[in-house]
């Protein structure tokens, strides 16, 4: 098998584990809107497996039944499905993003063990750089991550941009904390959450505050000057 074949096998194996273990209807019942990211991720995989990769052997309710992972190397050998690599990659990152299994930051990250086979396959293709035990997405992945709406056309990570915006908001608000609120945050982080939350909510132009902004304000008040990695 060549590198593309191996990457396809690893991505397909991950997607199979996800569509068999998860039930889209259960996700909807937990509050995800019909047609939302969870349902879309599952349907994308089912459509790809059934119509292009010849992997679906049946459907039980809303769960896609597919070939066993042990059958995959033979199924993908000789570049038989290489033309669908981009679609498989997009389904893979869409599912991994929804499940929170992979960050799509431009910064180096530590991957959870279950993701190692698929990420190694992508690293072998140059989509990721290994850096001192971590991985970092490369520009080679940029066009596809842009198509997946995870990066901008300039290959900026939407996750990084959102993290930066939250950090700016938290730093700005932390500078205006009342003395008693700052003291409360230093004494009891949990007790400070709701006073800061409601204070932020009452400010002009602020709707429901982002929980992560509130938590970061508390960290700043407690002397933690850098956001956690």
Shape: elongated
The neighbouring-strand order within the major sheet is 1-2
SSE order, as H and E? Answer: HHHEEHHHEEHHHHH
* SSE-based structural type: mainly alpha
Identify low-pLDDT runs.
24-35
Task: Calculate Rg over CA atoms.
Answer: 21 Å
Number of helices, counting only DSSP H or I runs of 4 residues or more: 11
Helix content: 40-55%
N/C terminus separation: 37 Å
The residue-averaged pLDDT reads 85
Strand content is 5-15%
Number of strands: 4
Query: Can you tell me the number of structural domains?
Result: 2
Main sheet? 2 strands, antiparallel
Description:
The structure is a single chain. Helix content is 55%, strand content 7%. It is mainly alpha-helical and 229 residues long. It has 2 domains: 3-147; 158-221. Strands 1-2 form a two-stranded antiparallel ribbon.
What would the keywords be for this entry?
single chain, 229 residues, mainly alpha, two-stranded antiparallel sheet, 11 helices, 55% helix, elongated
Describe the structure concisely for a colleague:
The protein has 229 residues and is mainly alpha-helical. It is built from eleven helices and four strands.
SSE topology:
Elements (H helix, E strand, L loop, with lengths): L2 H19 L2 H6 L7 H15 L4 E5 L2 E4 L5 H5 L8 H15 L16 H9 L3 E4 L2 E4 L4 H6 L10 H17 L4 H9 L1 H13 L9 H11 L8
Antiparallel strand pairs: 1-2, 3-4
Helix pairs in contact: 1-5, 1-6, 3-5, 8-11, 9-10, 10-11
């Amino acid at each position: 098998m060549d590198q593309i074949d191996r990457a396809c096998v690893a991505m397909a194996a991950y997607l199979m584990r996800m569509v068999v273990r998860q039930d889209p209807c259960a996700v909807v019942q937990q509050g995800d809107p019909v047609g939302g990211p969870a349902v879309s991720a599952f349907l994308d995989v089912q459509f790809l497996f059934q119509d292009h990769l010849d992997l679906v052997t049946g459907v039980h309710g809303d769960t896609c039944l597919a070939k066993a992972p042990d059958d995959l190397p033979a199924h993908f050998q000789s570049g038989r499905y290489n033309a669908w690599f981009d679609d498989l990659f997009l389904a893979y990152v869409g599912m991994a993003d929804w499940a929170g299994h992979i960050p799509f930051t431009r910064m180096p990250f530590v991957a959870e063990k279950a993701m190692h086979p698929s990420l190694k396959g992508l690293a072998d293709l140059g989509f990721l750089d290994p850096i001192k035990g971590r991985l970092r997405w490369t520009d080679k992945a940029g066009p596809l991550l842009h198509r997946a709406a995870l990066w901008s056309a300039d290959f900026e990570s939407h996750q990084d941009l959102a993290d930066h915006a939250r950090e700016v908001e938290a730093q700005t608000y932390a500078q205006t904390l009342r003395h008693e609120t700052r003291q409360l945050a230093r004494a009891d982080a949990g007790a400070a959450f709701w006073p800061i939350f409601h204070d932020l909510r009452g400010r002009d132009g602020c709707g429901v505050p982002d929980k992560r902004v509130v938590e970061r304000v508390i960290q700043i008040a407690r002397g933690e000057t850098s956001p956690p990695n």
